[in-house]
Each structure stands twice: as structure tokens, then as C-alpha cells.
Amino acid sequence: MVFLVSDEVKPKSGGPRMVVTGYASGMVECRWYDGFGVKREAFREDELMPGDRRIQDES
What we know:
Blueprint: E1 8-11, E2 18-24, E3 27-33, E4 38-43, E5 48-50
Antiparallel strand pairs: 1-2, 1-5, 2-3, 3-4
Protein name: DUF2158 domain-containing protein
Pfam families: DUF2158 (PF09926)
């Protein structure tokens, strides 16, 4: 599945809802707030599933 920057995603193995912030070296870069600060990590696309929100094409 291809995710767009600003899509909300979640790890398939469980974890926080995150926002896609970019792509680098074939990995999906994500950020989220854990209650104390902003965290970031890169995941393979197959480790993620769509979250509750997704940008809709307005065309």
C-alpha cells in the first residue's frame, strides 16, 4: 500500500497512531506525540496499516 505524506497510519503489530512525514531509503518516515514529546521512526511499508484518517483526492 502506498501512503501519502500526512496520512495517518498505525503499526500492524500495534502501537500509536502516527503521521507519515516522508520517505527515505525505501522507508516510510513517521512522527507521533507520546504525551511527553514528538517521536519519529522509519518503518517498512508492509509494517504499517492505514489509520483512521486519510487525505481524500478532491479532483
